[in-house]
Write a structure and sequence with these properties.
This protein is an alpha/beta fold. It is 37% helix and 15% strand. Helix 3 runs parallel beside helix 9 and helix 6 packs parallel to helix 7. The chain binds pyridoxal-5'-phosphate.
């Protein structure tokens, strides 16, 4: 052990590398599941007006009452059942600070979104791993095994799952709720991509149900820059989360931006519809290439090149100025790549480059 007087990171987190998608300078960026389209121009203008009028010398509404009421209204729910934070990642952090922590366990089902495990570790919550079944569906026997053996305090599902694109119908979430009945397990369904899918667990939320559903403005609302996420859950649990949050954790600009965005619901829904259309076009085109392909209910597509390795294919695409996500070394995803659905022209660039890399004339 060196002792050079430098402050040392906590032992339990020191060895984990951060979760990064490289931000390379390329023409076509399809690696981070961002919306390819900016919000409508009227949105930006309305936010500017709100900012000009802002009481900068005052702290913002600590409980973001207007924003939460507006989000709740979209789901026919009171604002009391809505918690907001700086991205859904901060929602997970507050959840784990409140219901995880030292001596407690969070269950995840691999392959899935890496941040659930990472934030668990950051909060000293032990991670217990289950596996998904064939084609990455949630295996209820496996969920039952993890619940019985590990008795998790928090159980993460992700629907549609990142990076596989598969969604769990509400009936599956109901079965999971039955499996944890009588325990004090909180079920968290991460629906960051919920609006791209035909199923959702939001209808199962209730004040007496140990379930929260998280969503975000980052993907479907074209607002990754704003860092705004939320959950729907029992009102009492939402109060517990506010008690664990730093005072005024959601700033006034973000509260205004979120509220104003919700006035453009039709425009945002149109963006989602466009992405879904492009997703279907891309899936059909990918099916003609030498790749293994998984059906997606989300804004990205997981595939595995069969003609060349994943790492090699990823690099050959970068060489053609197309950046996608390399999942080749993730659990159960040997050789897999994930492409975000972009604009039609970005998707064409990607498909042309991939055809070039994997096609009959490829090296
Ligand atoms: C992108 C993503 C999020 C969103 O995180 P934010 O902090 O809201 O930007 C959450 N869950 C999954 C599965 C994601 O892919």
């Amino acid at each position: 052990m060196s002792n050079d007087g430098r402050p040392k990171v906590r032992d339990d987190v020191a060895l984990r590398a951060g979760y990064h998608s490289p931000q390379l300078d390329v023409d076509v960026r399809l690696n981070a599941n961002e919306s390819p389209l900016p919000p409508p121009p009227e949105f930006g203008a309305a936010v500017q007006l709100a900012i000009a009028d802002m009481h900068w010398n005052r702290y913002p509404d600590r409980f973001a009452l207007d924003l939460r009421a507006a989000i709740g209204a979209r789901y026919g729910r009171p604002g009391a059942q809505v918690y907001v934070a700086n991205g859904s990642n901060e929602v997970f952090q507050t959840l784990l600070l409140t219901f995880g922590g030292p001596g407690r366990r969070a269950a995840i089902f691999e392959p899935t979104y890496a941040m659930h495990a990472q934030i668990a570790t950051m909060t000293s919550t032990a991670v217990v791993n289950g596996r998904r079944g064939p084609d990455f569906g949630l295996d209820l026997d496996e969920v039952a095994r993890v619940v019985d053996e590990d008795d998790p305090h928090v159980l993460f599902l992700c629907s549609p799952n990142n990076p596989t694109g598969r969604a769990d119908p509400p009936a599956t979430v109901e079965r999971v709720l039955e499996l944890v009945k009588g325990r004090r397990t909180l079920v968290v369904v991460d629906e960051a991509y919920g609006q791209f899918s035909s199923t959702s667990a939001t209808g199962l939320v209730g004040d007496d149900v140990p379930l929260v559903v998280t969503r975000t403005f980052s993907k479907t609302w074209s607002m990754a820059a704003a860092r705004l996420g939320y959950l729907l859950g029992p009102a009492g649990l939402v109060e517990d989360l506010f008690a664990m949050s730093l005072p005024y954790h959601v700033d006034a600009v973000k509260q205004a931006a979120g509220r104003i965005a919700l006035e453009y619901g039709a425009e945002m829904d149109a963006r989602v519809a466009t992405v879904i259309e492009e997703r279907e076009r891309m899936s059909a085109a990918l099916a003609d290439l030498p790749v293994e392909l998984w059906p997606s209910e989300s804004s990205y597509i997981l595939f595995r090149p069969t003609a060349r390795g994943g790492d090699e294919t990823w690099q050959a695409l970068v060489d053609r100025s197309v950046l996608i996500r390399n999942c080749a070394s993730w659990p159960s995803l040997d050789g897999c790549l994930r492409v975000t659905v972009g604009t039609a022209s970005e998707n064409d660039r990607f498909l042309d480059a991939l055809g070039d890399v994997l096609g009959p004339g490829a090296p």
